[in-house]
Amino acid sequence: MEFRLWQPKRQGGAQSVNQPGTWNFSDLHTRNPEDAVGFYQGAFGWQVDKVGFGADDADVGLMVRLPGYGDHLEATVDPEIRARQSEFAAPPGFADAVAWIVPIGAGRTPHWHVTFAVADRDRTALDAERLGGRVLRNADTWWTREALIQDPQGAVFTASQFTPPTG
Fold first, then answer.
1. For 121, which of 43, 90, 145, 164 could close a Cys bridge (C-beta 3.0–4.6 Å)?
2. Contact between residue 138 and residue 125 where contact means Cβ atoms under 8 Å apart
3. What is the mean pLDDT of each run of 10 residues along the chain (167 residues)?
4. What's the pLDDT at 37?
5. How do beta strands 156-162 and 134-140 pair?
C-alpha cells in the first residue's frame, strides 16, 4: 500500500474548491475508524467530529476537520463560506471539513474516495459515458444529486450536484 504526502510551499492548498468542476471532499472508507482517527489526528492534527450525516450510515458520519482550513478558504477563494453554510444549518466547524470517515464491512477494501462538485449531475453522467466512462449508480440525497462514475482506466469517483433542501 502506498502513502504519499505533499508539503505546500508557495501554494497553500487548493485555490478552487466546492465549485462545479473542482474537488469537493474526500472520504476514507475503513474497517477501523478509531485507528484511522488516531493516525490522522497524530500525523496531521486533524480533528474528527461525529455529526450524524456524511456517511453511508447517517448515525456514524465522522467529519474530519483541519483547523484553519475555513479561514484559508475565506481569505483566498470563498469569502462567503461561513455565511452560506449558516443558511443551511451546517454543523459547527463545517468550513474546516476536509474529509469524512466511512466505516465499511470486512468484505470491502479500505480506500480513499474523492468527490467532485458538478453543476448538473445528469449532464456530467452523460458526458462521462460519452467519453468512455461508466455510471455505476445515481443517488439523490437530502443535500445532493450524485453519480458514482468509473473512468476508462477503472478509477471510481463521485460527481455531486449540491441541491439543498427548500423548506
1. 145
2. yes
3. 75 74 90 92 91 54 89 87 84 89 91 95 98 97 92 97 80
4. 92
5. unpaired
Quickly list DSSP for 64-104.
Answer: EE-TTHHHHHHHHT-TTHHHHHHHTTPPTTGGGEEEEEEE-
Which amino acid does the sequence have at 18?
Answer: N
If one counts every other C-beta atom within 10 angstroms of the C-beta of residue 123, the result is: 12
Query: Is 125 strand, coil or helix?
Result: helix
> What percent of the chain is helix, strand and coil (3-state, nearest 5)?
25, 30, 45
Strands 156-162 and 111-117: parallel
**Strand pairing category for 47-50 and 144-150:** unpaired
